[in-house]
Amino acid sequence: MSNLAIIDDIATHGLSVCDGFLSAQEVHDLHTCLPAQWSQATIGREQKQHTNTQIRRDKIHWLERGRQPAVDALLAKMADLQQAFNRHLFLGLFEYEAHFAKYNPGDFYAKHYDAFEGRSNRKVTTVLYLNEDWSEQDGGEIVIYNPDGSHRQTLWPKAGRLVTFLSEAFPHEVLPAKRQRFSIAGWYRLNGMSGQRVDPIR
């Protein structure tokens, strides 16, 4: 699937599922970039950030440019997609932030929105999966709901799969996995200003 096909899906449905967005080699290279040290994931932003293991139990590590070639290659690829969004849908996307996510067996992320309408600058959510030899029996699915709360789609974390959706439109959850599960969660953001300064990326 090309970037234009993803753009068309978002324009038409608000949601896109692209298998093979990453090649097997790209998945392998990114897997070798997984860190030794992880941080407990939080909910909320800036002063309102806090941990709540009743809502989410994953561990995260933010991606940084200029440290690992595979990560730089991925960020360049996501920058190309950002430009396509801006060129064809005029979204005004300003920045892309992303982190590795690790779910140990039994970890989950309860149903939530990535952004609330009018209250966040996260516009488009992306999820990339790095799980080689994953089967549906391993669990760890993402469940996406319609804005009215009805079920939309359940997707298992297949290696190389990119799931993209409008952050304000779709509540979603991550079900517990039976083995360790890795992904890259990312968000294309608008530039929310705070006074005279550019909004911090996270």
Give a verbal description of the structure.
- With 202 residues, the protein is α+β, with helices and mostly antiparallel strands.
- The protein has 3 helices and 13 strands, in the order H-E-H-E-E-H-E-E-E-E-E-E-E-E-E-E.
- It has helices at residues 3-13, 24-31, 69-89, and strands at 15-18, 39-40, 59-62, 95-103, 109-112, 122-129, 142-145, 151-155, 162-166, 172-174, 181-189, 193-194, 197-198.
- The two termini are 30 Å apart.
- InterPro entries: HIF_prolyl_hydroxylases (IPR051559), Oxoglu/Fe-dep_dioxygenase_dom (IPR005123), Pro_4_hyd_alph (IPR006620), Pro_4_hyd_alph_FE2OG_OXY (IPR044862).
- Keywords: Dioxygenase, Iron, Metal-binding, Oxidoreductase, Vitamin C.
Question: What's a quick, concise take on this entry?
Answer:
The chain has 202 residues and is of the alpha+beta class.
**Structural class by SSE content:** alpha+beta
Radius of gyration from the alpha-carbon trace, in angstroms: 16 Å
Helix content: 10-25%
Please tally the β strands and state the result: 13
Q: What is the makeup of the main sheet?
A: 7 strands, antiparallel
How confident overall, as mean pLDDT? 88
Order of helices and strands: HEHEEHEEEEEEEEEE
Principal-axes geometry comes out as globular
What is the end-to-end distance?
Answer: 30 Å
Strand content: 25-35%
Annotation field: number of helices: 3
- Which spans have pLDDT < 50 for at least 5 consecutive residues? 194-202
Strands ordered across the widest β-sheet: 1-9-6-11-4-3-2
